[in-house]
Design a protein that fits this description.
alpha+beta, Histidine-containing Protein, Chain: A, 3 helices, about 30% helix, globular
Length: about 80
């Protein structure tokens, strides 16, 4: 499992994020506090508090390409 912290403040970023995740077969989860949703579900994502950073967890052996694409959504430190 690999993880990255991201932000999705605007609807367009959510749409772009879902477009990236849907193109992969991996199981991808999005966590906000105690809530966990499928990162490929736009409705699930909009049920989260998008004003706070979110944690993406990717389950898969060959997830390096996906992790590179997710860097553009990474939360700024």
């Amino acid at each position: 499992m690999k993880s990255i912290t991201i932000t999705l403040e605007m609807a367009q970023r959510v749409k772009d994020f879902v477009a990236v995740t849907q193109s992969y077969e991996h199981e991808i989860l999005l966590k906000s506090g105690k809530y966990v949703v499928d990162a490929k579900s736009i409705l699930g994502i909009f049920s989260l508090d998008l004003s706070k950073p979110l944690v993406v967890e990717v389950y898969g052996d060959d997830s390096a390409a996906l992790m590179r694409k997710l860097k553009k959504f990474e939360a700024e430190a």
